[in-house]
Amino acid sequence: MPELPEVETIRRDLAPLVGQSLQRVTVKLPKLVRPRPGALRTLCGHVLQEIARRGKLLLFDFREKLLLVHLGLTGALVLGEDGVSPPPHTQVILHFEKAPLFYADLRQFGWLEVVSREELPRHPFYASLGPDALGIPYEEFFRRLKASGRRLKALLLDQKVLSGLGNIYVDESLFRAGLHPERPARSLSPEEIRRLYEAVQEVLRRALELRGSSVRDYVDGRGESGAFQEEHLVYGKRGQPCPRCRTPLAYKVVAGRGTTFCPRCQR
DNA sequence: ATCTCAACCTGGATGC
DNA sequence: TGCATCCAGGTTGAGA
Question: What's the pLDDT tens digit per position in A115-143?
C-alpha cells in the first residue's frame, strides 16, 4: 500500500476539498464501509473541516463526525475533474460541491469508517497507533527500540510501535543504516539507533519530496505516479548487486514479509 | 513475549 | 494459447 509518504502526498493533494460540503455518496462495494454500509450517508450535508493523517490513516474531519480511510494495499483516493472518468476499480464516490472524490481499491483490503468525535479516542485501530514515523523525537524512537527484543524488521513494521512505515520504507531504511533486518532491536548500540533514526527520517523526507513510490498501482490524489521508486536501493532488487559493495542482494521472508537486504553491508 | 501462517482480494509475471 | 503457480505497498487473529 501506500505508506506514509504516499498517504501524506494524497492528503496534501486533497486539500481543495476542505471547506466543501459532502452532497451525496455512491457505494459500489458496501463491505468496504464501516460500521455499516449506510454510514457514509450520515455525513451528507456536512462541511469538511480539515484532512489529517496519522501513520497510514487519513482522517476527514466533518466536525462532529470523522471519516477514517485506510488504503490497505492498493487503495487510492483520486480527486475528480471535469471530463475525467473514475479510475479502474472505483468502489466508492464521495460527491463534494465542486468535485467528486473517487475511492478505488483493486484488492479491497482498505476501509472507510465513520466515527463520532467522541468515539475516536477509543477507536481500536486509531487508538493503537504509535507515534508518527515522520518527526518522532529521537528520544522516543530510542526508547521504543531499546524496549524490545524483537527483530528490527518486525518492530519497524508494527504500527503500534511507530506508525507509517511499510515494507518498502523499512527495507530502504535498514539498508541505508547498514543494519540487518533480523537484528534484535535491543542489541543495537546507541550509535546504531541513531543511524537508523536518521535513515528513517531521510528516506521518508526524500520519498515525500518525490511524491511517493509507484511500484505497481500507487497513484496520488491527482491520479499520477510518484518517483521515489527510482531511488530505491534494495526494495524489489533481489539478486542484483548491492549498490555499495556489489554483493548480490539477498531475499528472505522476515516477519511474514518479503525482505531484500545486503548480507554483507547490513549487520 | 515473539514468531509463523492463514485469511481477506485481484491481477501481473513466470513457467510448463 | 492455456493453465497452474507464485507474488504483491497491510492488518488481524489463531496457535505454537
Answer: 999 999 999 999 999 999 999 999 999 99
Q: What pLDDT, in 10s, does the model give residues A138-178? A: 999 999 999 899 999 999 999 999 999 999 999 999 999 99
What are the distances in angstroms from CA A91 to CA A3, A100, A114? 21, 13, 16
Please report the domains of chain A, with CATH numbers, ordered by start residue.
4-128 (3.20.190.10), 138-261 (1.10.8.50)
pTM equals 0.98
Q: How many Cβ atoms are within 10 Å of A232's Cβ, its own excluded? A: 20
Active site residue A191: no
Distance CA A112, CA A114 (A): 7
Which residue, chain included where needed, has cell 462541511?
A47
At A1, the pLDDT band (50, 70, 90 cuts) reads low
Distance CA A138, CA A128 (A): 20
Q: Is the CB of A31 under 7 A from strand C?
A: no
Nearest residue to B2 via alpha carbon and C1': A150
pLDDT at A173: 98
| Separation between the CA of A14 and the C1’ of B16 (whole angstroms) | 47
